[in-house]
What does this fold into?
Amino acid sequence: MPVDIDIAKVAKLARLALTEDELQQYGGQLADILEHAERVQALPTDGVAPTSHPVPMVNGFRPDETGDCLDPSSFLSEAPDAQDGQFRVPRILGE
Amino acid sequence: MTDLADLTIAEAGRGLRSGTFTAADLLDAVSRRAAITETHLHAYLTLDREGAGAAAASADEAFAAGEDVGPLQGIPIALKDNMCTKGLDTTASSQILAGWKPPYDATAVQRLRQAGAVITGKTNLDEFAMGSSTENSAFGTTRNPWDTDRVPGGSSGGSAATVAAGSAFGAFGSDTGGSIRQPASLTGTVGMKPTYGLVSRYGLIAFASSLDQIGPLARTVEDAVILLEAIAGWDSFDSTSINAPVPSFARSLGVGVEGLRVGLVRELAGDGIDPEVMAATTAMAEKLAGAGAFVSDASLPSSEYALSAYYLIAPAECSSNLARFDGVRYGHRAEVEGTTEDMMSHSRAEGFGPEVIRRILLGTYALSAGYYDAFYGQAQKVRTLVRNDFAQAYSEFDVLISPTSPTTAFKVGERAQDPIAMYYSDICTIPSNLAGDPSISVPIGVDGDGLPIGFQIMAPSLGEERLFQVASEVERLAGFDMRASFATSEVTSP
It folds into this structure.
């Protein structure tokens, strides 16, 4: 069954600024892959619980003790733009 | 005389301790080898000559002072370039991280340094570990040391190639759907994916967090054990790491397989498997029976759906994990007018390669409102069925066996334009990732083109001792000498 994809919407959700050509190309490939992926729907799974994680475990806790932390300068120096000890970005709101 | 670069880790360790050679000699041997092989293979993205030289010198000082922190002291080891190394470029083979220097070491890297290992450099991979050929790297394709027209597999293809070529004594990769075992199979090396949670993922650049595991690539099963023992164990920085003592795996080596119940997985041993690969697999199963194991057919009925489930689950997790690459805190930032959102969208479109974009889109779609239940939700239920299949099989068998890869190494470019054909490379390896179980690939021979064939052994969660026990016997029965490969090939000739 062909899969219906609004590829422009998916690209927007994924924060990917793709060109029209790219959207068309990826849209076609996604449809092909999803046709294969649809096979999972062929298996009867009534009453089957989903597995999100391979090892059953509850939250992993460690002792609540202070330890060494990264010096902010060690990662701010790797940022595309930083100012006054903070990451700097363009304006948040549009016109 | 044997070139030092062709020794195993165990052999090199004995030579270091008897004073036959030094850690500086070992580093010199792999550096000289790399100088020859790298022009053909491109296995390394970064060679850390300075750091490696200092680590070798301090290992030699330690030996001179009578200090010995274990079998990796002074041994040159390569790391996949998705493992964070403090101050040393870590790119995940992506333009979006080009030039990034992590402010910290991954836990596995920190433990290797404490074990005295000499880190030679960072190896090539498919971008963000997404691929099965190392062709998806933003920084060039790695070639297979056995035939440089062919791929080394992937995504840990660079690590596998260094071990096969002798430009490192051992290496680490990461395995999400087969990314250690499949390249090991294609390069005639031993590659092992540990139980999920046995090795900390802290500092491993995340692809699919419920599937990713760091593991070793080596020339022998014994070396794989040495490498794994150095990094295994609980880490307070990874909440999914297993808080339990790690047993000694070395005790499992060389004890044989008498009385063990071995199941050849029917669904991974039929359609789509190359006849020569299948014949070698069956022959090894017969040898195991000859060595005293009870070998019969096993069944994982849901495994034909495992690949489809994987290609929903892994992209879904990837689309979430890779949201962090937005041009704000690290990596590439696009120069565009507009808002922060515009900057992010352009940074990501410019920085990610096609396969990564494809998987982010796929995962975003599978998780989006209206499609979640049909795709992601259903895939998670199939994952439960796969786990149930394994549980059933392990009630009858101690280990399961299959080919590692349906084919031997394929030609560069052969599957590059066909994502689905590439995805089928991982058909035998994916089930163990979905289940979180340990699995290993051991080379057992070559096909008619002289290309290595890998044999996969799977064991239940935390069944590493059994896994290595069988792997060690398979290695002995195969009598495969990987050193015959690269050293004699024309590439090493001056």
About this structure: The mean pLDDT of chain A is 89.
